[in-house]
């Protein structure tokens, strides 16, 4: 069935030996980084070279799927392997990367008491004691037809509604993924407060998109809707939060600041 003369292995070899931009564009990482990740996964026993498919090709299959939103069937044609083979190695690498989570991801301390917005914004008490902001973002999803209804968002496309809590230290403090695009932001937030270890230090709060704050583990209204309930005021607040986070990032990353 798969009889193209140019195999997936030959493609990966050509990609890694070619211009550096090719690896970055197609694998979303440099060739040296790709090879280091491959060697790490081999050393941990996650993948290995086999008679039909190399470890580098296995990793490339995984990266093509997650970085280019490729379907498994398009991957089978691209790399000239069966659907069973590509699915098996995708899941092997996914499980292997989850196993490296604690070793390579430095998660923020739940007792975070970093700079609150009261030290940054003095013109208003809207951000008083806030240590960050929470919002949902929709990530495109490819899911089975039996689950379509749950993942159709208000724009009619398939997505996950991923909740993120971001601090004024420009770090992501918490992420909740897996909810379908039809779920409201408040639904995901309440679930996180009730079912995960998401934690807000006493005396602090996170600002949430709908003019609410999450304070000491509970969701409470910031001020009355008659004060900031209109959409113009809400957009101004969110814009100000974005400006603060951007300024903080620039201070922390002067060498990467846009000229």
What does this structure look like?
With 259 residues, this protein is an alpha+beta fold. The protein folds into 2 domains: 8-103; 117-256, no CATH class. Helices cover 44% and strands 16% of the residues. It is built from 11 helices and 6 strands. The chain has helices at residues 8-17, 20-27, 31-43, 55-68, 72-79, 83-99, 101-104, 148-151, 185-195, 225-228, 231-252, and strands spanning 130-140, 159-167, 172-180, 205-208, 212-215, 218-221. It is globular and about 65 Å long. The termini are far apart. The model is unreliable at 116-125 and 210-233 (pLDDT under 50).
What layout of secondary structure does this protein have?
Blueprint: H1 8-17, H2 20-27, H3 31-43, H4 55-68, H5 72-79, H6 83-99, H7 101-104, E1 130-140, H8 148-151, E2 159-167, E3 172-180, H9 185-195, E4 205-208, E5 212-215, E6 218-221, H10 225-228, H11 231-252
Parallel strand pairs: 1-4
Antiparallel strand pairs: 1-2, 2-3, 4-5, 5-6
Helix pairs in contact: 4-6, 5-6
Largest sheet: 6 strands, mixed
Shape: globular
Strand content: 15-25%
Alpha carbon gap, first and last residue: 52 Å
Query: Helical amount among residues, as a percent range?
Result: 40-55%
Low-pLDDT residue intervals, each spanning 5 or more residues: 116-125, 210-233
- Count of strand segments: 6
Count of distinct structural domains: 2
Radius of gyration: 22 Å
Report strand order across the widest sheet: 3-2-1-4-5-6
* Tally of helical runs: 11
What is the H/E string? HHHHHHHEHEEHEEEHH
User: What integer is the average pLDDT?
Assistant: 76
- Structural class label: alpha+beta
């Amino acid at each position: 069935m798969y009889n193209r003369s140019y195999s997936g292995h030959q493609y990966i070899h050509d990609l890694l030996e070619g211009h550096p931009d090719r690896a970055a564009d197609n694998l979303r990482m440099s060739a040296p980084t790709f090879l280091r990740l491959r060697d790490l996964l081999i050393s941990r026993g996650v993948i290995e070279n086999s008679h039909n498919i190399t470890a580098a090709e296995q990793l490339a299959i995984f990266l093509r799927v997650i970085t280019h939103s490729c379907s498994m069937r398009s991957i089978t044609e691209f790399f000239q392997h069966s659907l069973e083979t590509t699915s098996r190695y995708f899941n092997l690498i996914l499980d292997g990367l989850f196993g490296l989570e604690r070793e390579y991801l430095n998660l923020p301390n739940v007792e975070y008491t970093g700079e609150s917005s009261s030290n940054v914004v003095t013109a208003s008490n809207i951000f008083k004691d806030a240590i960050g902001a929470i919002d949902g973002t929709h990530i495109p999803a490819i899911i089975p037809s039996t689950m379509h209804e749950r993942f159709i968002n208000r724009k009619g496309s398939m997505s996950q509604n991923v909740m993120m809590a971001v601090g004024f230290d420009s770090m992501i403090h918490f992420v909740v993924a897996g909810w379908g695009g039809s779920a409201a932001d408040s639904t995901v937030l309440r679930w996180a407060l009730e079912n995960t270890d998401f934690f807000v230090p006493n005396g602090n709060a996170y600002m949430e998109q709908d003019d609410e704050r999450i304070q000491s583990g509970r969701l409470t209204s910031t001020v009355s809707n008659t004060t900031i309930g209109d959409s113009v005021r809400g957009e101004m607040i969110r814009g100000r939060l974005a400006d603060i986070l951007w300024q903080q990032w620039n201070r922390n990353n002067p060498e990467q600041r846009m000229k």
